[in-house]
Amino acid sequence: MQSEILFRDYPRSIALRPIQFENNGNPYGKSNPLLLLFDQVQQSYNDSPLQCNVRLLRESDVDIMEYRQLGSRAVYGCLGLLQVERAVVTECIPLGEIRSNESVFRIIDVEFYSLTNNTRYSVSTSASNRYYDDSSLNESSQQQSYEHPCTQLRKLLSNGHFYFSSDFDLTKTLNVRSKTSSADKYTYDDHFLWNKFMINELLNFRSKLSKLEQLEMDTCGFLVLAIQGYVGIQETRIDSSNVTLSLISKLSCKRAGTRFNIRGIDDDGNVANFVETETILQLPETCFSYIQIRGSVPVFWEQQGLQVMAHKIQVSRGPAATQPAVERHFNELQSRYGDVHIVNLLGVKEGEYVLSKEYKDRIIDLNGNGLENRVLFTNFDFNSICKTGNYENMIQLFSIIGEKLEYFAFFALDRETNSPIFYQKGLCYHPKQTGVLNIIKFWGYNLGTNVVQTALSKDVMNTYIRLMGNISESDIESLQSRHSILWAENGDGLSKIYTGTGALRSEYTRSGKITWAGVLTDATKTVNRFYINNFQDKSKQEAIDLLLGKLLNSKAIEIHDPVNEAIRQDILNRLSDYCLKSTINVFVGTYNLNGRLPSGESLSSWLFPFSDYEPDPHLFVIGFQEIVELKAQQIVSADPEKLRIWEKEISKALNSRSGQRSNYVILRSGQLVGTALVIYARSDIVSNIRNVEYIMKKMGLGGMAGNKGAVAIRLDYHDTSICFVTAHLASGQSNTEDRNRDYHTVNDGLIFRNGRRLLHHEYVVFFGDFNYRINLGNEEVRELIYQENFEQLLKFEQLTNQINYGYAFTEYIEGPITFFPTYKYDNGTDEYDTSEKARAPAWTDRILYRGNKIRQIGYSRAELRVSDHRPVMSSFDIEVIKLDEVAKKKIQGELYLEKQKTLSRISDSKLEKTNYARKFNNASDDHKDDITTTDNSNIDKETGPPVGVLINFDESNKKDGLPPPSSETFQWWADFKGDSSSPMVVDKSVINRKYRNFSSNPFYESNPRLMRSMSLKPLIPSKPTTPKPVIRQNSMGSILRTNTFTENDDEFLAKAPKLFDI
Question: Which SUPFAM superfamilies does its entry note (predicted)?
């Protein structure tokens, strides 16, 4: 149903009113429709949650004359609330019906209306969709135009790939919908509801309404649940009967993003570009459904930098650290769909082989080394088998999985009884490396997934049709033709969402033929993809994160609820009831390798200096500098081979020591030329870690080269955020300011996804080769070292002084330095530099930290002689928390009900006291003697007199003809029931009729009362007189000019009234 938008200026309010038509076409056929109102709520303090007030009222309950219509465009419902904006659908296209009374609409345009802002914004679309501008703005401000803050989001929502239905829950499959009633259409599947962040509070508001109010609100179509993907509907005829063929593809919003920004799996088991596609065929008596899914390869992998010609693929986590996420992924799939059969379309060339092997290994581990085939896995190298357009070779795939397809079957529903006839027992999963990795060789890669899914859907649908009886070949061909059209459009639509262009070789999917024109079109698409994915996807990714509420500053709009406000502090006070605190131990080490490889000496003195401490560290965090020699050819790109060698050496030391109690796996590693960071996690705690991200910052050659820079890895341990940063700062004895500048570049410039910076983490450990030196001569430094006079050396140590001066690392803490300087040694010896340069020793390698609940256990160095530096290490105890959201919601519900009852009792008590006050003040003549106004014996001694009772008021003093006295709870002009002929009684209906068209705001420019007062002749003020100053002289004879109103003025005091005169 369509609605119109109404607006009130002060206090600011926006309303949705359904547009209803009588049979004669007259709008507003119902005289008293429902209105959904949104009112501005002022924040009580800076950190208070953003709120608005939402009401569902009849038009008769609202002063509708205070509202005016905004524009002439109808809207199709509200997408939700986004900080200070409210989004509505302003234009959509009806696509048809999936089934009877199941209409689907495609969103074409949306608009945002503000509850707080008066500023005029420019919008890149048509002028009819202008952002609201307050008419009270002056002319100069109207001439200014600013970009709409939601321009990118509006562009995203208006791209033609979002759909909604007011009749049924589009987020669910036919199988699931058949088990629920139509009243459950707002019990959505949050995997596919893209505006969940915006509309969730409105759905909570709806859930608190009565069943009748919910039904009326749903009938008005106020709320819109939107999916992103593709919906296509084709109608044809079979045996003279109308049939409808539909295709619904829903893109998951759990791990959403653009091609090179979001890849692989996350810690919760969600994969990028996950799409659920359902083919629905509605026949006269039955309805058929077949589901397939596709998604990115479910391992941790990424692509960074410009993707030109080469596969720059990096598997970012080790097998053991990946396995928990893989298990979560397939457990979720099996709980939703049943059995899963993987059809792996990856090839054997370059990066595809790396991913395919890693994927297969994870499935083998998942199935217990092949002992139990929980998940079936079939390799089908589509690019090799079907190269040069030989798609008839897909018959090989059907020969492999045909038996499983027959077992999985499909879902079918009897339309008359709405009861299932067949159940789909499983599905085929098409993991893919979505997108073109190699622009020339793999330009047809996206084709693989859509072509294979089209063929499978077609085969299963044909099986079902033949089960239904004798159907002519011409009817089958007509149906298959429409099936191909839908799948070709589906491939184009999904490809545009993820890559920015239509699918490659979609011409074959549509017509079954390949032409030279199609080849040229695909080449153009490939070039466009390269430009879009490398240069335009960043802003699109930000819009996606804004829509889903994943940006750091994203705050959900809360609907104002006084009870929630009242219990907010109570919930915090009961934090211990739903929050579990624990302590983890973290080992941190840093080592400048000077480009050297392991020499065979034991690393135990470095990695286990605190071996007596219990328990084993939960995390080992290792930072390297100069892991490769910093030569000219090395400073632009990194050589990962030496890092792999050191990773294996450390893994060996961690997992093969005597008395080993724990096993460690590589959680994440990252490298920037010579700077690298590796995190090892105890295998039994890997499942506690989420949201691991890696980022690097170049600082060499003005940010162009990576010979100097930083690498950071952040993670969430349960619900506690921790960030580790290793850095290699500017070298040189006198370059202190350059090092300070490098520090600020790293500390302020490291930005993770969604805008998260170092300052947004609860704990940060900052370590590496900072290169700060000692401001003393070489000989003097060595002499003080020989004397072990570290206290005197630290007085001249640059980093210590820079911290004290507030120039660098001011937010960080460093433990006491009790070890010898770590730089610079002759390689393989214990002698400080004896070369010609003879550099002065210094503590260049440091570990600093910050956080509220972090305790340093030890801080020392190890005697490894591989490099010209000595490694440094430290151990930390960190307090982490784990929130139990289920317990929190339970406690919140209990507190809500308890507070609601308390407020209800208080309200009832006040009502009783108010009634008593009114009875007292309106006592009839027959009962006046029953109440003695001077006797307060009937007043509760503890609670005091009832509100509204005038203490010791004598009725005899009341003037004749006057109403009873007013009070806080009784107003004679509102409640007096006396003689209507009294001059003190005003008929409110007369006022309402007289001023019905007046604005409630007396300063509104169209208010007749204001215009009438403005037309009166203005009063001319009398000429002001200046007070005559009093001239006085001080003891020196100087003239003093005093204030005429000061108490020292004799003339003023003489005229002032005396106390006994008052």
Answer: DNase I-like (SSF56219)
